[in-house]
Amino acid sequence: MPFMLLPLLLLAADLRLGIIGTDTSHAGAFATLLNGGKVPGAKIVAAYKGGSADVESSRTRVDKYAEELQTKFGVEIVNDIPTLAKKVDAILLLSIDGRVHLAQFKQVLAAKKPVFIDKPLASTLADAREIARLAKEANVPWFSASSLRWSEIVSSVEGPGILGAMAWGPGPFEEHHQLELSWYAVHPIEILFTLMGPGCEEVTRVAGADSDEITCKWKDGRLGTVRALRPYGTYGAVVFRKDGVQVSPSKPHTDYEGLVREIVKFFETGKVPVANSDTLEMFAFMDAAQRSKEAGGKPMRVY
Questions:
Q1: Which of 106, 115, 151, 228 could form a disulfide with 185 if both were Cys (CB 3.0 to 4.6 A apart)?
Q2: pLDDT per residue over 39-60, tens digit each?
């Protein structure tokens, strides 16, 4: 069904959504919100399991979450992506392994269905840019975002006049992802970019035993910092203004509801809540941070 007709469906029924990748807890969390009725306008009706045999967190959970979707939410499990695309109005590409996103995205392009791509968008900057290029060429709308963008961490400190900011959060690595920060530290990175906006031009990354510190300079001279904690840690942010400093709550409210509401709104209207260019800049930031680490902490340009 052409994307331009999606808003008309709302007059008759909920949008039918399909999941690619049942190897993440997001599959059940999204289904709880959508099929459970807390977020109206769409229901998950079908899913393709996918999965990556060489990633433990994928291999050990893909069947479990697929069974949960089927038994708890009545979601049909299908054998391939083309079959899934025929059954739905829009697609949630949730596969936990960013390496497979480009190949999976290519399989849905012909269907001309709008796509939300869960974090990480890809495992390399080249793949992220290729997803954007192919989507533009095929006129398929997409966006990718972290749920932390709509969390209390951001809402408690965002606003005008930010001269600089610091964000922190978990940053464990996954050995198969070339951009180490894309696996998990992408979440505190998105907090920083939500507060600071686009325009980062230089990145310096210092790698420690249990954390990485990434300092970045914006084109207007402002400074930002991300601290990626290993193996895990809490999320938070600090912003600096002329009149003082604001710190996010020590136990902020974080869930998926804000993100899922934005996803449904996107599927209804075609308007992305996060510019694709902003998402690509975050990947260019992570690419620069990777080059900085490999150069022993030397500052690297974002390009």
A1: 228
A2: 999 999 999 999 999 999 999 9
Closest CA to 124 of 97, 163, 142, 164: 97
What three-state secondary structure class fits 269? Answer: helix
Interhelix angle 25-34/62-73, nearest 10 degrees:
10
Reduce the DSSP state of residue 37 to 3 states and report it.
coil
pLDDT at site 6: 52
Q: Which residues contact 219 (CB under 8 A, 6 or more apart)?
A: 199, 200, 201
Residue 78 pLDDT exceeds 50: yes
Name the residue among 119, 114, 143 with its Cα closest to residue 21. Answer: 119
